[in-house]
Amino acid sequence: MPASPTLADVQAAARRLDGVAVRTPLLENARLNERLGGRLFVKAECLQRTGSFKIRGAYNFLASMSEADRAKGAVGWSSGNHAQGLAEAARLLGMKATIVMPADAPALKVANTRASGAEVVLYDRVKDSREEIGLGIARETGATVVPPYDHPWILTGQGTAGLELVEQAQALRVTLDAVAAPCSGGGLATGIAIAVKGLSPSTAVHAGEPAGFDDLARSLAAGARQKNERLSGSICDALLAPTPGDVTFPIARQLLGPGLVVSDEEVLDAMETAFREFKLVVEPGGAVALAAALTGRLPVEGRTVAVVCSGGNVDHATFRTALERRPA
Amino acid sequence: MPASPTLADVQAAARRLDGVAVRTPLLENARLNERLGGRLFVKAECLQRTGSFKIRGAYNFLASMSEADRAKGAVGWSSGNHAQGLAEAARLLGMKATIVMPADAPALKVANTRASGAEVVLYDRVKDSREEIGLGIARETGATVVPPYDHPWILTGQGTAGLELVEQAQALRVTLDAVAAPCSGGGLATGIAIAVKGLSPSTAVHAGEPAGFDDLARSLAAGARQKNERLSGSICDALLAPTPGDVTFPIARQLLGPGLVVSDEEVLDAMETAFREFKLVVEPGGAVALAAALTGRLPVEGRTVAVVCSGGNVDHATFRTALERRPA
Fold first, then answer.
1. Is the pTM higher than 0.90?
2. Which one of B43, B52, B54, B116 is the catalytic residue?
3. pLDDT at residue A2 tops 90
4. Complex ipTM value
């Protein structure tokens, strides 16, 4: 694997994921298109195995490891979706997995990670260092650390969603003006950018982030990595990584357009729209790119745009809150 | 079109619907499979254009009409999903459509039907005859009546969902022991039965119905058409047809296994499971076959079973009620 992954690496990941990852549908809605004055496609990664795109990168990583390393197991840290993806990827490959999760992660994500057979170690998001806990487990057991985003095997795995998206658009004889994906550490957005730019160079690629956690948008604007001021406090629990990755940021600078930043209220509105118009359950962090399209930060008028709805692992209470945004 | 439609008719309908109907995904969930002790697939027709399978039959019907008839428009009656499917099919073909809808249909379904450009005429489900109103409009305007289920063009259009389902199962190298679909007048269930039995004769096909509106289950058991005692009163607003159709019942007798009957409470539980495990928004009537699988009425243990989740057009309030069944 070269330092800077290419379209060919994403295509190799797609072959590893064949029969493992769901080829999630690319959906559109005539009524919404009319309202927006353009064509908006949704890549429904919330329908992916484990309820988010994360199994793509995790499985690609584990399947790329040597057999000797696989025998020693995997360890990872995650606010929830990488946890579930990694745990399920390990189960599919018959491997042991240990997952370090924040104590305030949604109960559903913790329960689902355990249900895949992984051992879960909880930590305090503000006081503890998940990296230190995870690295300690790796030292003790010989397990390989599977990072949530900052590794070529992870981001090329996530990029397979972008490969599918472009192939699906081409099958509809559609050329995309822009693609946007949610961004935490940047694994999904950069992986998708490699795939999209490789297959369709004229398509702009953007990353969406929640307000207050817009480290990538500010880093792209400044030309150097910036940090978020806070470590928690958005409903987008999946998008709280403090800063762009060592591996992902150079790729983001090269391939991504300006960042798209949305408020928690706009995210709740987007979740309600996904419910009403697309019949999809989207979690807050999974809905930021859709929110950018619905609010006009990512213009749809007169254009053809695709957004990735990256996950659907949302607690009942949060989903009820979203439904209250526009009760019918 | 012969009196008794065949697999070839469903395949012809699939060609008409190519590029119009979404090829909805066939999903499964490892955790749920483990709990059920078998493999359960969900055909997510709630992701279909207009939020239900109904556009398949409506579009196939309109596309099969003569050009002269198409110029005079279409009229239909429906509790909501056929209305939306017919209105959107007419819009796609540049036709005028008038839809007779019950006054107690979900507000969302009425609004969406109007949004597709159709004229909506409301009636009282208990006092009025929707057939009389619709036939009156047809006499006055020369419009063609597009029935909700009881016509070969309708049921072969709906059957394309079954064609896809079997093709998708075959692509996964899976042989299905049973397939179940929700049933009101029987268009979807019989269309699917023709496709499934044609491609996979050993697969049993069942129809799911809500308790109190189990006219098909009782008709199959009795060997003659039975009527429901009530015309309203289930949360499954899409499944309240009073009796099996003239066209659909003989096909049902020939191809369908025993009927599956579930309570409204079981339907709400199934909607919550679809939310939690499949990230799908399923309306009550769309969830009856899933409910049958989850309650064991359609056994999954030791078997491979597929259920159609046929629609997702549910009001916010009803969905909130489903989420309260098992709050996390």
1. yes
2. B54
3. no
4. 0.94
